[in-house]
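*Target chain*
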Amino acid sequence: MFVNNCPELVSLSEGGLPSNLCLLSITFCDKIMLGMEWGLHKLHRLSQLEIEGGCKNVESFPEEKLLPSNLNSLCISRFSNLKYLDYNGLQHLTALNSLEISSCDELQSLPEEALPSSLSLLCIKECSLLKSKLLNNKGKEWFKLAHISCIEIDDEIIKDWSEIADVSCKETDDDVNLLEEP
């Protein structure tokens, strides 16, 4: 389901999303306010979630139990007040393979404890405060990424252990996709 360019949309109501939803993309809905009332945690078939813009109420993401544990891919962009990623909200995402964070200029750090161990691809774009802590593969936050096979920062592949992990980073039309090799 794609929700695009709805400048007055504030929320998605619980029960308003189909239970068999696999993909949810919300873009350019600048007044959207993310919250538990959306019922995302109940969408057990949701595997891909993209939210671009809005969410001005969010300083920490994701709220604990906000997202379904079976989520494979998460992309967040233009969260203007996002300061940190919440370990308690990420720890139960046991199927999360791909995480993309872009244009979150206030994002200062990754969770102290760690990102999910299932994560194979991390893409960070235009997050200047966080990028400075990841520079030269040895910044203050770098140790938190040791388990991730492929890391891309501002369109530069920083780490690609595809031969070891049987995954590879491949760019396609400015998007990064995780491809499992047969």
Remarks:
- The first strand starts at residue 2 and ends at 4.
